[in-house]
Specification:
Shape: rod-shaped
Strand content: 15-25%
Radius of gyration: 31 Å
Order of helices and strands: HEEEEE
């Protein structure tokens, strides 16, 4: 049998695997990549939380619009002309609750009801603002407007 030869030099010798330096360089590259992925995981988690809170704010605003659209203009104080989007005004704000009935801390729903520009007493402009201090940059304040009608 012929002896094995070194692949790099062609000289007779023993065939070897990776050298210690090659293994250390590969480990360094792998570690750097894993640290980058770990950083992205943290950012992704924060973005996911912010998007969830923004979606919650939009859902709360839409639910409040749907609720107020069903009320009678003559008997419900919540759809009388008035309200304030910048501060809590009696009958024109609420702190929503979770499924257990506990208040959702840091979230406030406010609405403003204005007479519609056409002068028709059966139409009102409704603006609902949800201030969500739990949200990140976007979704911290969501505002929806619509026209509601007395049936």
């Amino acid at each position: 049998m012929s002896p094995s030869t070194n692949r790099r030099t062609g000289a007779p010798g023993r065939e070897g695997g990776f050298t210690l330096i090659e293994v250390m360089i590969c480990t360094l590259i792998l570690t750097t990549g894993m640290l980058g992925i770990a950083g992205l995981l943290g950012v992704t988690t924060q973005m996911h939380q912010g998007a969830r809170e923004a979606a919650r704010s939009t859902r709360l605003a839409q639910e409040k619009i749907d609720e107020l659209m069903k009320l009678d203009f003559d008997t419900a104080a919540a759809v009388a002309v008035g309200g304030n989007l910048g501060a809590n005004a009696a009958s024109y704000f609420e702190v929503p609750t979770d499924s257990n009935g506990a208040a959702l801390q840091g979230i406030t729903v406010r609405w403003l009801v204005a007479a519609h520009g056409s002068g028709n007493a059966d139409l009102r402009t409704l603006t609902v603002r949800v201030v969500n201090l739990r949200a990140q940059t976007y979704g911290r304040q969501v505002e929806l407007s619509t026209i509601i009608r007395q049936w």
